[in-house]
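Hypothesis: this fold can be encoded by more than one sequence.
Test: take the structure tokens below, design a sequence, compare later.
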């Protein structure tokens, strides 16, 4: 694969577009660093149309022309939705004889340890579309059974009869020696046995047969959809007059060319989520924050990630639709809790919220789209946190309908509508709090020493309650929280990751790693088309006998590598084993090209004296109604402090400040919510 690098200084307009379920978000950065934001309705059946419409409307609002766009980045959900909706290609598998059930058997882990009746999700490749072939390579890469031309001819005939869209070739132990796998893929491609033939080691060359085969299957399953989408999108942008190379956000927090995204589509499965995490990491660096929890609340789910010293936690193994995906990505923990999460009563009559969601359609009752289930958003409307309309008047809220339905649920619980709404917020806050502990406390991090970077459409509404619940330092609200994922993409680097299996057990083996890393650097140089890129060398380490490993930076020598691994293991799992032997099983290279620094927007210098609320309204707080001032965010000057209770409105979100909190606006326009006693 190859990606063309673009090193020019960016002037003109820089635009990022992030596709969501309800809205497609557009962020525009002008040459002076000032930002504007816009939202257009998403078009799920043809998501490229919303992207093109968003770019066109944003350019029109800027009174500019498409030719003035000098940078365009895009976060897409096409790969994610294709897997989740099971609407992908017909994929076949050619595998070593005796291993046709590798995807069905899966791993040893159980989806639910105590549920004997729960079944795993069905593989993406049907059993009828799996062909076996005589060949065998052992774990050391030595040939046991040679791959013959006769065996390939028989396999080609069998594959041709299946009428596939994509064929995955995944042979046992190909990570140790991919010769058979590559030869078979080339042979079957020449025979046109399927429109597309892919060797699993070209997607990921790491050990673990099930994970490697699953990753290749996912990539094959989504590639035709993503490729078609990229082709349409590029053509539409060209017709619009956009004269710049588009970049696509990938799961690891970096950008890549759309041609690479089409071929290696599995790299984009958490494309949109990664943008927000990258943004949170950059903002934490800009503000000088230490440990930060990135907290992105949308309509259906909440995406949570830990950021340490401005670097987000990453993982080399994740899942999509309960299927393993072994590719580098930002380590995001997703929970079923969002603005559209539905409130309901369980069999014992207790109040529950989520994980089911009203989604974009019909949505919350207050949205007047036919929704009939109470949601978290409806609770905010009943409590007075939200009122009137959203998105500059584009969404009129129906308070009466939400209140009437809340009264029905309250009657079942023996509560007033207001207390019932408060109960919904308390339940969802507890759920979100558990998610935050998952990425902090369970990783050895004291959550009380963390800042909460709250964004997404509903993040600023919940930030105040969460830092109160968890005792966190503060909640930090970015200037444009509702489209923070799009804004975060603007500063993402071009990035490609490379990995190779190895086995190092001692200092002598460690010295030989130089040649393996040199090979990875050569691959990166070829792919990026330049030698001007930053290199991060990593190693997957584990104690001998463990079935899991930790990815840590490569050290100068074996002794320091061992010490770094012991420290990392103790921090993550609470202990280190000095008596156990260590081994390195995978070496990794992260190759990045940082983007030219953009101008930083600062708020205008205005007197920090009192500002006048644009309105007041009744808000239900802790069992009683209180008159609360409403402020417009753009009116809050630098270093001004607001004391709660208060509500801050803006186009893309609403911020709530509790009575025991204060809110300070810094020079860059970030809001900092802290306990009042810390003033």
């Amino acid at each position: 694969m190859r990606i063309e690098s673009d090193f020019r200084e960016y002037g003109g307009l820089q635009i990022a577009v992030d596709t969501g379920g309800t809205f497609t978000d557009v962020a525009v950065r002008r040459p002076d660093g000032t930002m504007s934001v816009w939202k257009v309705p998403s078009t799920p059946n043809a998501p490229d149309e919303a992207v093109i419409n968003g770019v066109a409307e944003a350019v029109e609002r800027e009174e500019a022309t498409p030719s003035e766009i000098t940078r365009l980045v895009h976060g897409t959900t096409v790969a994610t939705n294709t897997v989740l909706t099971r609407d992908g290609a017909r994929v076949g598998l050619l595998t070593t004889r005796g291993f046709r059930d590798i995807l069905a058997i899966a791993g040893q882990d159980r989806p639910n340890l105590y549920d004997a009746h729960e079944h795993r999700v069905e593989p993406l490749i049907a059993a009828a579309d799996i062909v076996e072939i005589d060949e065998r390579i052992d774990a050391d890469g030595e040939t046991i059974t040679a791959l013959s031309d006769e065996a390939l001819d028989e396999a080609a005939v069998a594959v041709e009869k299946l009428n596939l869209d994509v064929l995955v070739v995944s042979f046992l132990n190909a990570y140790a020696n991919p010769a058979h796998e590559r030869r078979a893929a080339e042979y079957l491609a020449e025979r046109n046995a399927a429109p597309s033939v892919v060797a699993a080691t070209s997607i990921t060359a790491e050990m673990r047969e099930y994970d490697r085969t699953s990753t290749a299957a996912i990539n094959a399953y989504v590639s035709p959809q993503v490729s078609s989408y990229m082709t349409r999108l590029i053509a539409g942008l060209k017709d619009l007059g956009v004269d710049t190379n588009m970049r696509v956000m990938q799961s690891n927090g970096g950008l890549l060319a759309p041609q690479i995204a089409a071929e290696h589509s599995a790299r984009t499965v958490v494309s949109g989520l990664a943008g927000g995490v990258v943004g949170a990491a950059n903002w934490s660096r800009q503000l000088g924050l230490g440990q930060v929890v990135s907290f992105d609340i949308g309509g259906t789910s909440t995406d949570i990630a830990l950021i340490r010293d401005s670097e987000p936690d990453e993982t080399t193994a994740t899942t999509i639709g309960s299927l393993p995906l072994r590719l580098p990505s930002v380590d995001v923990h997703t929970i079923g809790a969002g603005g559209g999460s539905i409130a309901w009563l369980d069999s014992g009559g207790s109040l529950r919220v989520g994980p089911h969601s009203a989604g974009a359609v019909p949505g919350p009752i207050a949205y007047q789209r036919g929704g009939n289930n109470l949601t978290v958003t409806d609770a905010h409307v009943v409590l007075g946190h939200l009122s009137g309309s959203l998105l500059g008047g584009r969404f009129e809220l129906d308070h009466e309908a939400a209140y009437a339905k809340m009264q029905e649920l309250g009657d079942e619980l023996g509560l007033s509508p207001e207390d019932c709404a408060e109960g919904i917020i308390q339940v969802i806050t507890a759920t979100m709090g558990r998610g935050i502990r998952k990425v902090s406390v369970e990783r050895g991090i004291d959550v009380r020493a963390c800042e909460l970077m709250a964004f997404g459409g509903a993040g600023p509404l919940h930030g105040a309650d969460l830092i109160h619940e968890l005792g966190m330092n503060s909640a930090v609200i970015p200037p444009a929280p509702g489209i923070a994922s799009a804004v975060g993409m603007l500063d993402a680097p071009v990035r490609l990751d490379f990995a190779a299996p190895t086995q190092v057990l001692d200092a002598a083996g460690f010295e030989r790693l130089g040649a393996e890393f040199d090979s990875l650097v050569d691959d990166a140089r070829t792919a990026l088309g330049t030698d001007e890129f930053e290199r991060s060398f990593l190693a997957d380490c584990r104690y001998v006998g463990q079935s899991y490993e930790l990815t840590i930076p490569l050290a100068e020598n074996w002794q320091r590598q061992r010490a770094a691994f012991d420290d990392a293991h103790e921090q993550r799992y609470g202990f280190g084993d000095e008596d156990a032997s260590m081994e390195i099983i995978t070496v990794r290279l992260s190759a990045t090209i940082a983007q030219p620094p953009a101008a930083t927007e600062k708020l205008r210098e205005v007197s920090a004296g009192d500002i006048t609320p644009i309105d007041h309204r009744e808000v239900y707080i802790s069992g009683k109604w209180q008159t609360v001032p409403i402020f417009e965010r753009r009116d809050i000057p630098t270093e001004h402090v607001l004391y709660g209770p208060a509500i801050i409105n803006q186009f893309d979100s609403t911020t709530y400040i509790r009575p025991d909190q204060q809110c300070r606006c810094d020079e860059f326009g970030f809001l900092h919510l802290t306990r009042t006693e810390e003033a």
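Residues 341-427 form one domain. The two ends are 54 Å apart (CA to CA).
Hypothesis status: open.
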